[in-house]
Amino acid sequence: MSTKTTEETKATASSKKSTKANKIKNTKLTLDTLIQDVDKYEQLHRVSFEDGRYTEVYACFRPTQIDEMLVSFSEFITEYNRRFPEMKESKLMDYLSLHILLFFSTLTERTDYSFEEKINIFNKMLDSELAETIFEHFDKTEIQKIYSRIWKKFSMYEEMVQNNKELQSELWDYIENANLENKDVINNLLNQNNQKPKE
């Protein structure tokens, strides 16, 4: 029985990888395959509970839906900071998680709740073990897409701010007036790239 040398094995593996790369590289994208790819955003996974109740969560998060959710989340946080004392970082993450539940599960068909409605719903959801269980069924890769999109948008905004004195001033004013627990950390982070506009 013959055995392949290390060099032969590497050459074979390299050849297979190269062939696979060429197949992927040379596959023409058509409208049909594009539409089929988008179909993944309609796939749902069932989350069942011992008492027979169930809900469903989306397997993949649609990019436009992520953007819509982030706008809703941003508006909610802005209004929260206007009305209440400082928000702890853990509370901020709770509210983000609850927005994800609203937008990427079948718990409700609505996403256009008023601020008062959201506060009422969210306070009740935070006391529900079921909400936590549902959230655990989201694909971690999809959750990561949301965090990546937040940082991407923040980076784009930061780049705009660096080149626009008026936006710099608006950003500093917002941070100074926001009721954020970690305001100093945010200021230090922004100071690394931007100088606070002189009064």
Topology:
Layout: H1 6-25, H2 31-38, E1 44-48, E2 54-58, H3 63-83, H4 89-104, H5 115-126, H6 129-136, H7 140-162, H8 165-177, H9 183-191
Antiparallel strand pairs: 1-2
Question: How would you concisely characterize the structure shown here?
Answer:
The protein is mainly alpha-helical. It has helices at 6-25, 31-38, 63-83, 89-104, 115-126, 129-136, 140-162, 165-177, 183-191; strands spanning 44-48, 54-58.
Report on the architecture of this protein.
This protein has 199 residues and is mostly helical. 65% of the residues lie in helices and 5% in strands. A hairpin with a 5-residue loop joins strand 1 and strand 2. Helix 3 (63-83) packs across helix 4 (89-104). The longest helix is centred in the C-terminal third of the chain and has 23 residues, at 140-162. It is flat. Mean pLDDT is 77; it is low at 1-6 and 193-199.
Q: Indicate the proportion of strand residues.
A: 5-15%
Largest sheet: 2 strands, antiparallel
Radius of gyration from the alpha-carbon trace, in angstroms: 23 Å
Number of strands: 2
Q: Kindly state the mean pLDDT as a whole number? A: 77
H-E string: HHEEHHHHHHH
Structural class: mainly alpha
Helix run count: 9
Question: Which strand order does the major sheet show?
Answer: 1-2
Cα shape:
flat
Q: How far apart lie the N and C ends?
A: 83 Å
Unreliable sequence segments: 1-6, 193-199
Instruction: Please bin the fraction of helical residues.
Output: 55-70%
